[in-house]
Write a structure and sequence with these properties.
NERD, NERD domain-containing protein, 5-stranded mixed sheet, Trna Endonuclease, Chain: A, domain 1, 9 helices
Length: 343
């Protein structure tokens, strides 16, 4: 079992690394790519610690047709930490209005909204989301944290004095603690040390919380020919009216995955030209798993029946907005191998 868990963790790291380094992020700035790489490193830091569950890139609905991304969620025996990871460099100053002003080495200045306040808002949003899905959390169970992970980041004392903020040195100190090479203190000690008192959540509530977080929305994903992967938000299909009618059932509330099989080859193309038809793309449909929020209960029966397969023309397109792109992009169905939809 230990070997299987280790292989699974290695596979997860490999997938996350692909998403971080993939050329599909062509719309992202270099700073955004570096930020996602930093999130991956922090995620890897926590993964595998006994008694700790870690989740990455959760996108929690705001109730206003939008979503807020949470970098990392960390669940211990008695706390849930909402972690915002910043890979900023330079001097960080706290202004009177709460703005964080970043002065880079080249002298440029970039102002950011109060990161601690923003992380608190995300923590409150996640708490509301969890309770809406059926788990009531104890007071102060959800805690916001801001990780300034870049060693070249020099926040002023007014920022470091905020209990929610950890500097790069403190994050590195935690790495030593997690490997058992130093003494433990503060919130980190509560993270790594099993408490003798009763757990803040019952076993059933903890299992339900794990299901909620592991099934929370993340990014949609396009797999393209040539191994390219694009992450972002699926918008819609575009194409002939008969194709759109055949695909109208594709909603994230009902479908989790679409796999495309392309009818290629010169024989099929000749036959298609003779009969006046373009060779079709065969799409295999995977329905979303509607388990009850209590994972101990059996799956509920689906109320609607979706087709297991549909065929559409390869010149139909998918409207998809990649991470970092200001506008949605069109992708020909003929170039797509699979589409995964987040919940």
């Amino acid at each position: 079992m230990g070997v299987a868990n280790a292989l699974e963790a290695l596979y997860r790291h490999f997938k996350l690394l692909l998403l971080t380094l993939s050329p599909s992020h062509e719309f992202e700035l270099e700073s955004d790519r570096a930020g996602r790489a930093a999130e991956l490193r922090v995620f890897s830091l926590f993964e595998g610690i006994p008694g700790v569950q870690v989740y990455q890139c959760l996108r929690i609905p705001t109730g206003q047709k939008g979503r807020r991304e949470i970098d990392i969620v960390l669940v211990t025996e008695r706390e849930l930490f909402v972690i915002e990871v910043k890979n900023w460099s330079g001097i960080i100053e706290l202004k009177a209005d709460g703005v964080w002003s970043q002065v880079r080495r080249n002298g440029t200045i970039q102002n950011h909204r109060d990161v601690v306040e923003e992380t608190k808002n995300r923590a409150n949003l996640l708490k509301f989301y969890i309770e809406k899905r059926g788990v009531t959390l104890p007071p102060s169970f959800v805690q916001p944290k801001v990780f300034l992970v870049n060693p070249d980041c020099r926040p002023e004392q007014a920022i470091l004095m905020q209990p929610e903020v950890l500097s790069a040195d403190q994050c590195e100190h935690f790495l030593e603690q997690s490997l058992g090479r130093s003494s433990q203190s503060g919130w980190m000690k509560s993270l790594l040390t099993a408490r003798k008192s009763e757990s803040a959540l019952s076993d059933s509530a903890r299992k339900q919380l794990h299901y909620i977080l592991s099934s929370a929305p993340t990014w949609d994903r396009l797999e393209l020919e040539g191994g390219k992967i694009v992450v972002g938000d699926f918008q819609d299909f575009q194409g002939p009216s008969e194709d759109l009618a055949a695909l109208k059932f594709v909603k994230r509330s009902a479908v989790s995955h679409l796999t495309m099989v392309h009818c290629r080859g010169w024989v099929r193309n000749i036959i298609g030209s003779v009969i006046g038809r373009t060779p079709n793309v065969q799409i295999t449909v995977t329905e979303r798993d509607y388990r009850d929020s209590n994972p101990g209960k059996p799956p509920r029966k689906q109320q609607s029946e979706l087709p297991s397969q549909v065929c559409v023309r390869p010149d139909s397109r998918v409207l998809f907005q990649p991470v970092g792109s200001p506008v949605p992009q069109l992708y020909n169905l003929n170039n797509i191998l699979a589409l995964s939809l987040s919940a």
